[in-house]
Amino acid sequence: MKLRGSEIQAVLFDLDGTLVDSAPDLIVAMQRLRAETGESPTDAAGIGAVVSKGGRAMLRRGFPDADEARIESLLPRFLDVYFEAIATHTRTYPGVDDALATLEKRGVRWGIVTNKPGWLSRALLSALALDTRCAALVCGDCLAQKKPDPEPILRACALAGVDATRSVYVGDDARDIEAGRRAGTMTVAAGWGYLGDEDPLNWQADIVVAAPHDLLAALGLS
Question: Which pLDDT score is estimated for 44?
């Protein structure tokens, strides 16, 4: 499904790797955690490549010799360390601020659907002064279901007062595109995100956009 211009009621975004580049602070948190556990610094690039896949995926890269029991035991401390300096280096991607301002000017609602826990998402958005601007925020602990289940996107559409079939979901992971497709939204693969070695052309998104600067033009909203 493809929508254009005035057909679009809302644009919903994934958070990490789509709206914001949070990898630098997550990498710092991982290095701090390794120092706490008496281990040497690890490969930063490997961690950054899997940010969109969540904390456990990052810990598997940061502690490659750990079994799943240790990953689970490390996760709460990792998130706590990250929370302590959640927006020291994190910024919106170049072009995102202009895109959000243009959506607001045109009366198109925008929101966020993320698997990131609410306490972390709200703290990050508050630090970036985005929390009072989004029409909907659905986090990983808001519902029993997470992406790629469509329910979080459908909840965001309900909160924003928009029709899912007249909304767009933008994300940098295959789970994002699956969730948007199942929810009935138009889907956009964010080619600027944490793709690792994945090719977003394989995700069956309606369109792939290379950079945030190009998003609104691709949607007929520039």
Answer: 80
Cα–Cα distance for residue pair 220/137, rounded to 1 Å: 24
Looking at the domain covering 5-21+91-219, what would its CATH class be?
alpha beta
Q: Average pLDDT, stretch 183-188?
A: 98
What is the value of pTM for the model shown? 0.95
CA–CA separation, 211 and 213 (whole Å): 5
Which strands, in side-by-side order, build the sheet including 109-113? 136-138, 109-113, 10-13, 167-171, 186-190, 207-209
Q: What is residue 220's predicted lDDT score, i.e. its pLDDT?
A: 97
Count of C-beta atoms within a 10 Å radius of residue 34:
16
Q: Where are the domains of the chain?
A: 5-21+91-219, 23-84
pLDDT higher than 90, residue 197: no
What pLDDT does residue 87 have? 97
CA distance 87 to 205: 30
Which position among 14, 21, 172, 176 bears the catalytic label?
Answer: 14
- What are the residues whose beta carbons fall under 8 Å from the beta carbon of 164, sequence distance 6 or more? 153, 154, 157, 183, 184, 185
Asked if 172 is an active-site residue, the reply is no
| 141 backbone dihedrals φ, ψ, rounded to 5° | -110, 15
